[in-house]
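Q: How would the structure tokens look for this protein?
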Amino acid sequence: MNHTSVLDGRLALMANCLLLCALIHLPGAAFCQASEAEPRFEVASIRLTVLSSNPGRGLHRTDAAIVSESAGRVSYSNATLRALLARAYSVQPSEVIGPEWLDSTHYDIVAKLPPGARKEQIPDMLKNLLTERFEVSAHLEAHEVRGYALLIGKNGVRLTKSKATAASTADTEQVLPISRSLSFTPDGHVEVIGATMEGLARLFAKWMDRPVTNRTELPGEFDITLNMSIQDVVALRGLPAPTGQLTASQPGPPTSAEDTAPENSGLASIFAAVRDLGLKLVPERVDTKRLVVDKASRAPTEN
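A: Here is the predicted structure in token form.
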């Protein structure tokens, strides 16, 4: 028997086996990579919000959006396209620049996540949904706005390390956008359990609708009680949007108790609450990004 022929035959058989494996496995691998790069909801339903004309019942145009996000399902009720874009692109709602109707039309969205999807993929899934169903075309651009730095006060912090950290059995890769829990107490306080300083800065940014940068360099999680009521938080939402730059003619809010209290009661309360923690909010120019909507359809494509 010719050994060379046998060897050539074996090599050909091995090549065919490798080719078969490639045909079986490579498309799946490519699909997984594409799914990771472009995550999408498995199925999504979009409808116009049915607004009530009864002052005491149902949803109204001025009501806040109701958001529910979990590992398997998301829902956004009474959400404007501005709010949805802000969530998808991780910017503040005031940093979304587009047509006026972004605030006037409200939508209800219910979507199912594909098996194995992670919560941190939700913004990208929402972004793809808005692109496909609302024909959104948008871009981020550099922008300088008025914001705040969260710093340690001159007398040091008065913070309590969180008990929830040691007791938690959550996955170490779990993303805590703000804290482990947040609630309003009957005696007019806000309890924030398991908050990092980054999370606290994001909470203040959300309430004030302005960028807040954590510059405390404090590691770990804390259990925090803020001397603020739900009315104070609602008052904060009435602050003007941060569209201007911080200049001498546009002074920032007071940074000590001796300064004149700001007209907005919510702003006064948040500065007082921060000082109680041994921290302070100092106005600063913040280089951030805003989302410019180049094109969007008011009516989404059918489900």
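The radius of gyration is 25 Å.

Helices lie at 3-37, 81-89, 122-133, 164-167, 197-208, 230-236, 265-276.

Upvote if useful.
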